[in-house]
Amino acid sequence: MRRSSSFLFSVLAVLLVVPRYDGPERLPMIRDRPHVTASAYVPAGGWPARIGALAPVGGVTLSSSDPAFGGFSALALRDGRAHLLSDGGNVVTLAIRGGRVSDPRGHVLHQGPGVGWDRRDRDSESLTLDPATGRTWVGYETHNQIWRYAPGYGSAERRSAPAAMRGWVRNLGAESLVRLRDGTFLTLAERKPNRRTRHGILFTGDPTVPGTHSIRFLFQPPDRYDPSDAAELPNGDIVVLTRRFQYPFRFTAKLVQVRRADIRRNATVSGTVIATLAPPVLGENAEGLAITQERGVTTVWIVTDNDGMALRPTYLLKLRWPDADKLRARP
Fold it and tell me: Residue 104 and residue 95: Cα distance in Å, rounded?
């Protein structure tokens, strides 16, 4: 009897200490060393010579047996390694050499909004990094918060719920986040304030640091497209990745170049479509964008989100912008 009472007391003590959880199944967490494979991707009919202003270099599909792999919503590159952020608080870093995945690493954003047990807590939709320090900033769409993490994603250094983002619709918020070379930050909401335009903010510095000012503007994407990521060109202009879903199951994406000089307080900015990705080249959910320089040539990288469906691979595409070197900094 004494042993039974002791056992019952232990159970009750655990229930008192551990918060009650009655929501959906916990999100899976990526392993430290996930096994990731890459397979060459060539669209039906082969790669076209040009996709708008871009010239395809090639692509791969990424797959893994790890249940937490996939669902990538953002992309950044540093020192030859891709940083892939999922919408469930997992980060995979890897390099691809000779068509093979090299040294894949998994990182979990243990610190973030909420307890981190379900998708509402870790709706991590945007990522940007400082190539000099390795620090990263993550935008949480549902909570409309921005968190800064130390190199390696081990700990959160700062966090902020910017006042300019508090009116953004939950789960339709900070879909894009990019740190510009001058130290400012730009973020775009996925939807609202209306069918034609999307909320945008240019932060005068690190958005997690008190005293940073917000410059609000509106972005007008192509009709029925929503922004999913953004990146900076060498001349300071911004490229916004936009995507559109059509029933029964069809995605298209457009890359839009926005003049940096047009982004001003209360302005409505649009831009120029530089490329359209559609079947048969790509019919998947393009969510992550990064721009790098390789031997003086501007290179555009795009990653897709398989929406957590194991039967859909993750696509990573590489394209060159041969004429981007002709772009000049604009006043």
Answer: 7
Residue 312 to residue 329: CA distance in whole angstroms: 40
Q: What CA–CA distance (Å, rounded) separates 119 from 258?
A: 32
331 vs 324: CA distance, rounded Å: 17
Q: Could you read off the pLDDT of 262-271 as tens digits, one per residue? A: 999 999 999 9
The mean predicted confidence, pLDDT, of the chain is: 88
Could you tell me which residues are beta bridge partners of residue 328?
none
Cα(91)–Cα(288) distance, integer angstroms: 13
The total of other beta-carbon atoms located within 10 Å of residue 311's CB is 5
Q: Is the pLDDT of residue 173 over 80?
A: no
HSE on the CB side for 185, CA within 13 Å? 26
How far apart are alpha carbons 195 and 172 in whole angstroms? Answer: 13
List, for residues 278-311, the tens digit of each pLDDT value.
Answer: 999 999 999 999 999 988 899 999 999 998 888 8
pTM of the model: 0.89
Nearest CA-CA partner of 61 in 330, 312, 246: 312
**Nearest partner of 128 among 301, 317, 289, 293, judged by Cα:** 289
Q: Which long-range contacts (CB under 8 A, 24 or more apart) does 252-257 make?
A: 252/276, 252/277, 252/278, 252/279, 252/283, 253/228, 253/277, 253/278, 253/282, 253/286, 253/302, 254/221, 254/222, 254/225, 255/52, 255/54, 255/289, 255/300, 256/221, 256/222, 257/233
